[in-house]
Amino acid sequence: MDVCTIATSNYVAHARVLAESFLTHNRRSTIHVLVFDEDSRAALSGEARLRTLGPQDIGIDSDELHRRATMYNTQGLAASMKPDVLLALLRESRGPLLFIDADGRIYSDLDPLAPLCERHSLLLCPHSLDPYPLSRGESPEQVILRAGALNAGFVGAAEGAEEALRWWARRTRRHCVFEPQASIMFDQTWLTLAPCLFEHEILRDRGCNVAGWNLHTRDIEWNGQVPEIDGERLRHFHFAGSFDPLQPDHLTPIAALAAWWADLRERPGAAQLVREYAQRLLALGYERARSTAPTYTVTPAGVPIAAWMRECYRTALLQFEDGLGEEPPNPFSHGDERFIEWLEPLASSAARAQAPPSPEGNGSNQVSEALASALLDSRRALARIAELEADRDDAAAWAERVSVELRKACAEVAKATEELAKANAERACCATVIEQMRNSVSWRVTKPLRSVKAAVRRTRSGVLSPSPHDPPAR
After folding, report:
1. What is the distance of C-alpha 82 from the center of its chain?
2. 373 pLDDT exceeds 90?
3. HSE-CB of 151 using CA atoms within 13 angstroms
4. Helix or strand or coil: residue 41?
5. DSSP-assigned states of every residue in 150-178
6. How far apart are CA 31 and CA 70, in angstroms?
7. Does pTM top 0.70 for this prediction?
8. Closest CA to 301 of 414, 383, 182, 216
9. C-beta separation of 169 from 204 below 8 A
10. Can you tell me whether residue 218 is helix, strand or coil?
11. CA distance 51 to 33
12. What tens digit of pLDDT does each residue of 128-187 get?
């Protein structure tokens, strides 16, 4: 039973924990990880049975990748490719596969799930197998109804599931967004329709996809070092809800989820499991991964892509694919400048569409001003980046010229230093010879004779210098 997952750069540590745990308990299997950048690929390399894939390996070319990267945020981009990666791997192997979200950990063998996949082609996992108590306010079941009764973080597929996966992929291709008012939660709510349309099996293994949302009637029990639940081996725990290993006493830091998820103070077995996962996540680079901005959150020039920009682009792309107008430019295929120029005339209409009602009637103007300000900031950022790049190029050219001149000057200084050293050596040698001559016996003995010779030379030259022994002139 092979497994596949998707890891954006800020979830690389999660993927490493998932891969490590899966390969430990499933020694004949392979885990396939879809990544979006080379740094993530490098961080996941080195494991023999871990295979990294890029979007091109699952049939997503660069143009399509750039469209999705512009219209979807990080979560939507990754979720949109779940059916694509399952389809691509099924074409390769035809064998049973599990897609598991990167924020999970495996605790035992998953091979017993393979026959279910092979018999029914599509294996779907409900959020919970136990009903929740009714409440006066909004109940957990109402939350799950909006999110989808089936969890997209644990999906099995085998030969025969291709039609269902293609159906799912057509919907996530352009409609993998978070719009609760439209009953769309990324890739997940679409699966609610799958049992009505395709052959399938609802997974009722109580040790799979255990998570904060389905611990309301149970807890993890420990048999020595082996975690169990409901009297059976725990297979997989889903640490969803933006779990933070720096806060290991909580299953989720999101208050709206924590309000109805299990409280770890009342689940000591789960609390121990969570603490162990937090330690492993930190050990495998969580803090470094989470400090890395995911690919495609900003344009190539570094301008953040706001949610309204993504929605404007998605709306225009859908219109183009319906035969209306031209394809809108995106920053990754067409450049920042074209993308920002295309957005400018849409700012006012986007402002009117998103404007909150206002008693004074000026809500639209306020949002319009905010959007116009965002566009202006983006253009200023682009201009500033261009200036800095020009300054960088000038500085690099100047540094190269100075470097050449400095190398020449250093060579000349070295040559002059060498010549000066030679001259100093010769002068020292001469000084030694002269000193030796002056201290010799022959030099002292012949001193009177040298004085006479000097006087004769002066006389012959017509210049008579007074001797120090002559009387002074009167």
Report:
1. 19
2. no
3. 26
4. helix
5. EEEEEEEE-TT-HHHHHHHHHHHHH---E
6. 28
7. yes
8. 383
9. no
10. coil
11. 6
12. 999 998 887 788 999 999 999 999 999 999 999 999 999 999 999 999 999 988 889 999
Q: Other CB atoms closer than 10 Å to residue 203's CB: what's the count?
A: 22
Which value, in Å, is the radius of gyration of the alpha carbons in the chain?
Answer: 40
Highest mean pLDDT among 76-85, 133-142, 416-425, 427-436: 76-85
What is the model's pLDDT at position 292? 86
Q: What is the DSSP string of 322-391?
A: TT-SPPPP-HHHH-HHHHHHHHGGGHHHHHHHHPPP-TTS-HHHHHHHHHHHHHHHHHHHHHHHHHHHHH
CATH 3.90.550 fits 2-290, yes or no: yes
Does the structure show a pLDDT above 90 at 366?
Answer: no
SS3 content of the chain, % helix, strand, coil (to 5): 55, 10, 35
Kind and range of the H or E run holding 228 = strand 226-229
Q: How confident is the model at residue 76 (pLDDT cuts 50, 70, 90)?
A: very high
Give the model confidence (pLDDT) of 106-119 as tens digits: 999 999 999 999 99
Q: Are 34 and 58 in contact (CB under 8 A)?
A: yes
Strand-pairing partners, residue 2, are: 97
Tokens standing for 447?
């001193």
Q: Write the single-letter amino acid at 250.
A: H
* Cα 253 to Cα 239: distance, rounded to the nearest angstrom: 12
pLDDT digits (tens, 9 = 90+) for 4-62: 999 999 999 999 999 999 999 999 999 999 999 999 999 998 888 999 999 999 999 99
Q: Using CB atoms within 10 A of its CB, is residue 20 exposed (0-12), middle (13-18) or buried (19+)? A: middle
Q: Given this model, what pLDDT does residue 414 score?
A: 85
Beta-carbon count within 10 A of 315 CB: 16
CB 317, CB 392: distance < 8 Å: no
On whether the CB atoms of residues 153 and 232 are closer than 8 A, the answer is no
DSSP state of 61: -
Per domain, the residue ranges of the chain are 2-290, 307-378
d(CA 320, CA 43): 38
Instruction: Report how far residue 148's alpha carbon sits from residue 314's, in angstroms, rounded to the nearest whole number.
Output: 23
Classified as helix, coil or strand, 413 is: helix
